[in-house]
TrEMBL record:
Xref: Pfam families: Beta_elim_lyase (PF01212)
GO biological process, one term: glycine biosynthetic process
Protein name: Pyridoxal phosphate-dependent transferase
UniProt feature coiled coil, ranges: none
Cofactor: pyridoxal 5'-phosphate
UniProt keyword Lyase, yes or no: yes
Any GO CC annotation of this UniProt entry: cytosol
Modification type N6-(pyridoxal phosphate)lysine: residues: 251
Region (Disordered): 1-37
Family named by the database record: Belongs to the threonine aldolase family.
Keyword Lipoprotein appears in the UniProt entry: no
Keywords: Lyase, Pyridoxal phosphate, Transferase
Gene3D superfamilies for the chain: Type I PLP-dependent aspartate aminotransferase-like (Major domain) (3.40.640.10)
Length: 418
């Protein structure tokens, strides 16, 4: 009888054939990217704040993580993160999720309990346009997208016009017709594309919805920026306005992966079961939770207000970018309140493709019309951006040949400005 064994040379990192595996092993040792945004290119990347790369301190924290099973609920690092986030947000419980998208879907799924249900959200919200229709396929809910009248974020005024709610007593003079799909949940984004929902407005929405039996979800992928702006309240004050709040750690917080949902004990228990049902219960989450805990400390701080200072630097950069544009006569699509600048390209007579292409030739990546600032953008990238603005608004240069692209600058020794 022949005993089949694995073929030799199957160990990790062993070069079997001169090919990809060997290349990967080489680049792992020769080109370590941890903690170096100029090497990874994020120092020159204005497309999104999700692009940041984790720091060496996060790597060290991963080394200290517990390695127990979170499907069993036994991993201490993960549990500590959940407890810490629940406490910081002044809520009973929290559930870790591997992405903000999953966290949003779980949060909304847990609120959609009594069919038929509609979820009212800003038409440009992440849950409407960037979650692959998950609300329909996972929760069977109807999305009720609304364009905010103020062009920035939803308000009570928008709800008064668009929410489909039964008045007191249900079907009656003022009630909804039986044919309507009632709004059971309002989903808000804070920040909404960089714009802050002021705390007073959020509280008014909470009161309006509570009076009508409508639940509130807040997508707080960038809630850190909202808090750091000083106009949105603390994490706890914001969380108090929602049945569930999702927070992402892979935007301004700068962790590699991860999000949490906070809410009541009952809603979090429902969320953990839903999470398991879509394969989101994962095992050694301590690795991720450790990096997240370190990233929160690095960039925001341990409490419910920003003491890290990193967000205010990022917001100052966005204000500087906005001035670079408007001082040259450019107009904005939205006011810059946190870490984004929204350029009005039409009034500058330039297309997004042209602007992005000019960025590439100047060694920076842009996804116009949105310029997103994050803590790994370097001073040199801002200078390149200013040159692009000059070319568009001052020298009015048009398309030329393609240059070396964003990564051509990697080796030129960009110094991180923070
Ligand atoms: C990025 C983002 C998400 C999703 O977060 P991921 O962790 O990238 O899945 C959700 N909502 C908003 C508003 C976002 O910007």
């Amino acid at each position: 009888m022949t005993i089949t064994t694995d073929p030799p040379n199957r160990a990790w990192g062993t070069k079997t054939t001169p090919g990809e595996a060997g290349q990967a092993a080489l680049s792992e040792t020769d080109e370590v990217s941890w903690g170096d945004p100029s090497r990874t290119g994020t120092a020159f990347d204005f497309r999104t704040d999700a692009i940041t790369t984790p720091t060496l301190r996060q790597l060290a924290a991963i080394g200290r993580a517990t390695l127990n099973d979170d499907v069993f609920g036994e991993d201490q690092t993960t549990t500590a993160l959940e407890r810490q986030m629940a406490a910081t947000c002044g809520r009973e419980a929290a559930a870790f999720a591997v992405s903000g998208t999953m966290a949003n879907q779980l949060a909304l799924g847990a609120l959609c309990q009594q069919r038929p249900y509609g979820v009212l959200a800003d038409a440009s919200a992440h849950v409407v346009g960037f979650e692959a229709g998950g609300l329909a396929s996972l929760s069977g809910a109807t999305m009720q997208p609304v364009r905010p009248a103020n062009g920035l974020h939803l308000t009570v005024g928008d709800l008064e016009v668009h929410a489909r709610v039964d008045e007191e007593g249900g079907e009656g003079e003022l009630g909804l017709p039986w044919t309507a799909c009632p709004t059971r949940v309002v989903s808000l984004e804070n920040t909404a594309h960089g714009n802050v929902i002021p705390l007073a407005e959020l509280r008014a929405i909470r009161e309006w919805t509570a009076q009508r039996g409508v639940l509130v979800h807040i997508d707080g992928a960038r809630v850190w920026d909202a808090v750091a702006s000083g106009r949105a309240g603390t994490l706890a004050e914001i969380a108090a306005c929602a049945d569930v709040l999702t927070l992402s750690f892979s935007k301004g917080i700068g962790a590699p992966i991860g999000a949490v949902v906070v809410g009541s004990g009952a809603v979090i228990r429902r969320i953990k079961r839903l999470r398991q049902s879509i394969g989101g219960g994962v095992r050694k989450t301590g690795l991720l939770a450790a990096a997240v805990r370190e990233a929160v400390l690095e960039n925001f701080g341990p409490g419910d207000v920003d003491v890290g200072g990193v967000f205010s630097v990022t917001h100052d950069m966005a204000a500087a970018v906005t001035r670079m544009w408007t001082d040259r006569g450019g107009k904005l699509l939205r006011p810059s309140e946190t870490n984004m600048a929204w350029l009005d390209l039409a009034s500058a007579g330039v297309t997004a493709e042209t602007l992005n292409g000019m960025g590439m030739r100047n060694g920076i990546l842009i996804a116009a019309p949105r310029i997103v600032l994050h803590h790994q953008i370097c001073a040199k990238a801002l200078v390149s951006l200013e040159q692009v603005f000059d070319d568009i608004l001052v020298r009015r240069k048009v398309e030329g040949a393609d240059g070396p692209g964003a990564f051509g600058l990697r080796s030129k020794g960009c110094v991180q400005n923070i």
